[in-house]
Fold this protein.
Amino acid sequence: MDGVVTDLWLIGIGTGNPRHATLEAVQAIRNAALILLPRKGRDKADLADLRHTILRNCDSTAPIIEFDMPVRDDTLPYLQRVTKWHDEIATIWATAIKQSGLSGPVALLVWGDPGLYDSTLRIAARLQPAPRVRVVPGITALQALTAAHAIPFNTLNGAVTITTGRRLRDHGWPKGADTVAVMLDSQCSFRDLPPDGLHIWWGAFLGMPEQVLAAGPLATFAQPIVDLRATSRLRHGWIMDSYILRRQDMTTA
């Protein structure tokens, strides 16, 4: 039936560098019948522009439907707020696809990788009838971060925990972890940890011309990173950043 999605392709496009798109991603973009492209407000217009640049670089000829992302209701408890937001996004997708009247694979370009701290798969699961979902993996922010700092992701035989700023604030250093990688942290939650003996590697706009990096003992670099993050966000109107924490006695392990 036209306007009903039977194949949904979630294509990881990396952290902002158009060259992060893999050969598989390029081919998927070229073969898509329709592209859904989110808009996140005027302050983040360059995120949509980057997606358009990637589409042009991939020689995409598919029609593009742009849609405005709904705003989360901050008056609701966190999980209820996010669940309602996902429901709203799924409805927007379904409506846009139906109104297009097109059939064939529908593609969404996903920052980083669709499988790492991204909700696109959870939103896709809400579509009815359920489409066949294909995931094209992409370069994650954590891959780009370790590459930018030229560090290994893990210590020798060491455990790594990937978590969020919210969980770091609520629960502190994860038990048993030598290395902690933190995403989705607008509050700079590393400030809530006892800084002595910790080393931080931080980065924002990873892989982009605007990339900024900082690294060193947390006790020394916590406030400079907070200031650098605030300045960068003010300059661009948005920011995507991540960081890795490791105990200093493990930095060469």
Observations:
- The chain has a mean pLDDT of 93.
- Residues 78-100 form the longest helix (23 residues).
